[in-house]
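Example 3.2
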Amino acid sequence: MARNKRRIPELRARLRELAEEYDLDELHDIADELHRNPPVSRAKNRSKPLTTELADEIRRYVRRNPGLHQRDVAQRFNVNPGRVSEALNNLA
């Protein structure tokens, strides 16, 4: 599928030009409806921030319990699995 070459404001302006040129009120109505939706707000972060101390604690816990899944470790420390992954990959 080809990418659109024009942005929404440009398309809206062109529709208005065509509406004027051909005296088509419907194109003005379509141009009025053509807009971007506001960005979707994200849910608040409920996971604790990954401090160096927490990352160390998670790594020690995983070394003592190597068979656990990251989601189990995350539940134990009340963080999301992404935080566990960050800790295990030394991103903290």
